Amino acid sequence: MLDLRLYMAQRLSALVMVPLVLGHIAVMIYAIQGGLSTAEILGRTQGSLLWFLFYGSFVIAVSVHAAIGLRVIAHEWGGQKGRTLDGLMWAVGAGLLALGARAVLAVTLP
């Protein structure tokens, strides 16, 4: 049952990530072609609830997706099982979430 829940969580996180990745790429293309400086980009993102929610959702989805994917790899290639496997998944997920949250806060806090 756990495998089915993890499978579904990874697929749902992928569904959330698709529009966010496309949005992020579109924003990056706009910024590069517009010749925006870092200061101009931060001027637009800092203090914005919309950008906080956009990139915050992105970080959560990536953290879930990557942690489950690495869990599968650790099991299939590394032979990890049980608590070691679960601990690895939770550590990777928490680490990605912490790093991503720090980046989101740096870009969106005024």
UniProtKB/TrEMBL annotation:
Superkingdom as given in the UniProt entry: Bacteria
Instruction: Report the GO terms under cellular component.
Output: membrane
- Location in or out of the cell: Membrane
UniProtKB keywords: Heme, Iron, Membrane, Metal-binding, Transmembrane, Transmembrane helix
Required co-factors: heme
> Which Gene Ontology molecular function entries are recorded, alphabetically?
metal ion binding
Which residue ranges run through the membrane? 12-32, 52-73, 85-109
InterPro entries under this entry? SQR/QFR_C/D, SuccDH_FuR_B_TM-su
What function is annotated for this protein?
Membrane-anchoring subunit of succinate dehydrogenase (SDH).
Question: What is the designated name of this protein?
Answer: Succinate dehydrogenase/Fumarate reductase transmembrane subunit
Q: Which organism is it from?
A: Roseovarius tolerans
